[in-house]
User: Fold this.
Amino acid sequence: MLRASYLAGTAFTKSYVGYVHAVAHSLGGRYGIAHGLANSVLLPVVLEAYGSAAHKKLAALARICGLSDSGNDAEAADAFIAHIRNMNQAMNIPAALPGIQTEDIPQLARYADHEANPLYPVPVLWGTDQLEQMYHKVQEDTNYDRTGNTDHSGKAA
Assistant:
């Protein structure tokens, strides 16, 4: 177990999932959401939000895994993220997490920011505003449309 823990720590330190981990910690601490579940739900959302800052590494992973032979890093990165989403769906991992309260999100984002910056390597540094968007994107039963835009029609997006 000690070796497994070391290898896991080494892997996520090198893999740019710092914000995934930090946001998942805050959700587990506040709501008791299982850490693995929170990480699974957050991973494709955060990787997508990293945008072009992560394309090169994600594209390399997509090519290694045989998910894309595109020479375009953005396309290959998108294929990798889509594969994560497909795996989550195949394993019945939800796209959203229950119980996240909108009024808690600013404080949760501050916790995640404090944990991640400067402790975790990430492809792009975010502030609390960007971290708040991650909570909204995985918040269940919200008027947030999962692309970062608020739907002001009153209908769930």
